[in-house]
Amino acid sequence: MSGEYDASSIQVLEGLEAVRRRPAMYIGSIDEYGLHHLVWEIVDNSIDEAMAGVCDRINVILGQTEHGFESVTIQDNGRGIPTEPHPHYNMSSLELVTTRLHSGGKFDHSSYKVSGGLHGVGIAVVNALSSWMQVKVRRNGGVILMQEYVRGETISHGLIEVKEDWKDRGGTHITFIPDHEIFEAVHFHIPTIKNRLRELAFLNKGLTITLIDNRKAREELESEMSLETEKENTWSFHYDGGIQAYVEQLAPNRSHEDIPYFDETIETTQVEVALAYDRSERDLIHTFTNNINTRHGGTHLSGFKSGLTRAINSYVLKNEHLIRNTHLKKGLKEKRSIFTGNDVREGLVAVVSVKVMNPQFEGQTKSKLGNSEVKGIVERCSYENILKFFEEHPDSAREIIDKCEQAATIRMKFRQIREAVKKTQAKGTGKLVDCSETDPAKRELFLVEGNSAGGTAIEGRFSEYQAILPLRGKVINVEKARLEKAMRNKEILEIIRAIGAGYRENFQIENVKYHKVILLMDADIDGHHIVCLLLTFFFRYMPELIDEGYLFIAQPPLYRIKKGNKELYVLSDQEKDKIVNDWGKNVEISRFKGLGEMNPIQLQKTVMDPNNRTLLQVTRVNIIEAEQIFNTLMGDNVPPRREFIETHALEVENLDI
Fold first, then answer.
1. CB-count exposure of residue 610 (10 Å: 0-12, 13-18, 19+)
2. Cβ–Cβ under 8 Å, residues 209 and 58
3. Is residue 394 domain-shared with residue 457, that is, in the same domain?
4. What is the CATH number of the domain that holds 405?
5. What pLDDT is stored for residue 307 in this prediction?
6. Are 517 and 548 in contact (CB under 8 A)?
7. Which helix or strand (DSSP H or E) is residue 282 part of?
8. List of E strands, 427-498
9. Is residue 284 part of a domain?
10. Nearest to 618 by CA among 608, 634, 606, 630
11. Are residues 86 and 128 in the same domain?
């Protein structure tokens, strides 16, 4: 029976206690995502100084205490957090912003015209969720002042003067240790941090951001799979070309020489765009608001798409000679737009960055911009500047128009194939053996190699929430095949139908039927190849599935080890050798050559039971490297693939990973 609910039941959480009680409300989660969010909160404050034109250098330093806890230090050479006594509170301004929520200098736009940190919770939240934090500040060439905190509480009385030799006249140095009592994971992931810092350097041309990893035993700490071994501990990012350089790296195989770029301010909104077209079919558009990655788009994305489509259609109406397709020529004679939005976005690589004085984001994670006025501003800027670029660069304009015409021709020719996908989705479940659970967040879909293994998985699954889709043979390599050919592949159609959210530009993440899509293949070369083909498909056709953390790779065991009543399943030769050595003589060892050799109980116990299985979550931490790797390894250009394999062959330690 519940206790009494009366006036005494009402609690008021003082200070930062609310953050410690409900951390996910402020940083999204207490896993690796939330852990890294602490870094972004502090780095974003330094970036705001850079956007204000008073900071050109930021350092991010990873350290480790003598007890093994990881720390992060963020240094900038900006103005420094104000340290003077606050006129309305009995404390310094520094202590106010570090210990009180909704305090800061970004509410009235007098100190910052635009900023990423808008709610005054950043540094205070980091303080609340750290076991220890230290802030050092220097302002206008004066003395260096320091204050320390433990779990959000100030432990130093007032500000302490420290003797250090700073070459900068001003700046803020913040060091914190995440509280291991709160976070599920307390290990910082170098690729995640590198990707974000590189991104910020692209978005703020001229800014230098340096990452230094001073942690002990880095080889043991870095257990992530990587295509290259990290041998250095310092990385520096500086791009005078800004987002133009970003697009150049994202589209190394572009079909035209000049890159359309513009930077224009209308009223209080700054719009900066760079774009290019490469020889692929997919489109890749990154959007940012005040340096925040709005991965779900928003009004700035809508405005850019509309402006681009209008500009290209307007240009071809004035330059009809560029069009060769007779059906499209007929449309020009009727003075109507001949290209759809999908036509002009095929092969498009773009970065759209806006600076907005009062951005309105949808949701706490700031992943989608909602300001209605921004759409019209970005559309106007895009339309006018892209048209101007075409007129000044006719050769590049011709290449881009040719790309759009090719897409439009294929669209008209293979419209029936696109419709076939919709029809297959309405036909029923096909080979899919579905589960009874209706909540997508609780449902799992296993894509299983072969009908035989699929049958075993069907018998061994937890039918309430696990669905099975057997795949016969290898799916088509969508990096080489055009859309119309990929849509003829039965396995591809089955996957699209099972997930139920469409594909490519028509993909709707909210319609995904399963929040865990798990690739279950044999632990051999053929199985790995199928995994690569499926990863290529998801990367090109459903990247949002990866971004939302819905895609996983199962890790079936290689060996079953038995001695008497003891039985273990292991994933690697190293693990097997250790167990055999520990158990001594009379050990039975069985190697599984494939999923088909496992019975339903074994498959359930090792791969399907959430309490025992091992899943690798698929992420695309570094989009630039991911693009280059998929182009190299799965594309149709042989020399770069051969060079990559020859370069990295000796680095491979375990092909079964």
1. exposed
2. yes
3. no
4. 3.30.230.10
5. 98
6. no
7. none
8. 444-449, 466-471
9. yes
10. 630
11. yes
For the chain, which ranges sit under pLDDT 50?
1, 5, 7-12, 107-108, 118-120, 219-230, 641, 644-657
CA dihedral 146, 147, 148, 152 (to 10 degrees): -150
Which residue in 484, 524, 548, 597 is the catalytic one?
524
Residues 330 and 332: their CA atoms lie apart, in Å, by 5
Residues in Cβ contact with 439 at an 8 Å cutoff, skipping those fewer than 6 apart: none
Cα of first residue to Cα of last residue in the chain, in angstroms, is 51
Lookup result for tokens 């970065």 = 351
Matching residue, tokens 């949002």? 544
Residues 445 and 316 in one domain: no
CA distance 83 to 92: 6
Helix (H, G, I), strand (E, B) or coil at 211: strand
pLDDT of residue 653: 39
Q: Please tell me whether residues 321 and 428 are part of one structural domain.
A: no
pLDDT at 111: 53
| Cβ neighbours of residue 204 closer than 8 Å, sequence gap 6 or more | 47, 50, 51, 242, 291
CA dihedral 567, 573, 575, 579 (to 10 degrees): 50
Token pair listed for 62: 């990873």
Structure tokens at 444: 């799992």
Geometric angle at alpha carbon 34, from 29 and 36, rounded to 5°:
170
Q: Is 48 tagged catalytic?
A: no
Helix (H, G, I), strand (E, B) or coil at 505: helix
Structural domain of 131: 17-237
**Residue whose pair of structure tokens reads 């894509």 in the numeric block:** 447
Q: Which two tokens stand for residue 43?
A: 């780095």
Q: Taking every pair of C-alpha atoms in the chain, what is the biggest distance, in angstroms?
A: 86
Are 110 and 203 within one domain?
yes
Q: Print burial letters for 502-532: b (CB count within 10 Å at least 16), e (below 16).
A: bbbeebeeeebbbbbbbbbbbbeeebbebbb
* Element containing residue 161 per DSSP (H, E): strand 160-162
Give CA angle at 161 (212, 214), nearest 5°: 15
Among 362, 394, 413, which residue terminates a domain?
413
Residues 84 and 154 in one domain: yes
Active site residue 278: no
- E-strand ranges in 473-533 read 516-520
- 222 and 94 part of one domain: yes
Point out the catalytic residue in the list 41, 44, 199, 449.
449
Catalytic annotation present for 108: no
Q: Is residue 484 assigned to a domain?
A: yes
Instruction: Give how far Cα 291 sits from Cα of 201, 235, 238, 351, Å.
Output: 10, 20, 15, 12
Whether 179 sits among the annotated catalytic residues: the reply is no
The DSSP line for 89-106 is SSSBHHHHHHHSTT-SS-
Strand partners, 517: 445, 551
Amino acid letter, residue 320? E
456 vs 475: CA distance, rounded Å:
21
Sheet holding 566-570, edge to edge: 566-570, 559-563, 588-591
What is the tally of structural domains in the chain?
Answer: 3
**CB-based contact 413:485 (threshold 8 Å):** no
Q: Which DSSP letter does residue 594 get? A: S
Q: What is the pLDDT of residue 646?
A: 46
**Backbone φ and ψ of 393, nearest 5°:** -130, 70
Q: Which among 149, 103, 155 has a CA at the least distance from the CA of 130?
A: 149
Q: Domain end: 384, 413, 442, which one?
A: 413
Measured in whole angstroms, how far is the alpha carbon of residue 395 from the centre of its chain? 35
The tokens for 514 are 């399963």
Catalytic residue among 76, 272, 494, 522: 522
> CA-CA distance, 417 to 271, in Å (whole number)?
38
Looking at residue 230, what is its pLDDT? 46
Q: Looking at the structure, tell me whether residues 150 and 167 fall in a common domain.
A: yes
Q: Given the structure tokens 């895009």, which residue do they identify?
A: 382
**Phi, psi angle pair for 443, to nearest 5°:** -90, 145
From the candidates 168, 263, 526, 575, give the one annotated as an active-site residue: 526
